[in-house]
Amino acid sequence: SEYSKFDPYLFDPDNFYKHGKNRAFESWGYTVNDARWLQAELEKQALKKYIAGDYTLGKLNKDGQRINIRIEIPRKDGGRMVSFLSGWMVYPNGSLKLTTPYGGK
């Protein structure tokens, strides 16, 4: 996945995208300094779940099949796990690409 999906898009330090997705991650203790770890963790979990068929189908169009994959990460304060949906595209050539790291609870 592209690093820009995490920094600046997800954490949106300049409030350019105005989506507020950063608030969920910040409430779990994550900051832009965690962007590389989050990128790697989402990629790892998504690939494992995609191969296992653990995803829900979204829109299908000429570009490919959109899918949603549930991701689980620990709160940084040592508390419980949190889970959320991430959005992905499966292209006709079979490649899997992140479209949004946070698609909702």
Automatic annotation (TrEMBL):
Pfam families: DUF6883 (PF21814). It comes from the Bacteria. Residues 4-102 form the DUF6883 domain. This is DUF6883 domain-containing protein. It comes from Candidatus Scatavimonas merdigallinarum.
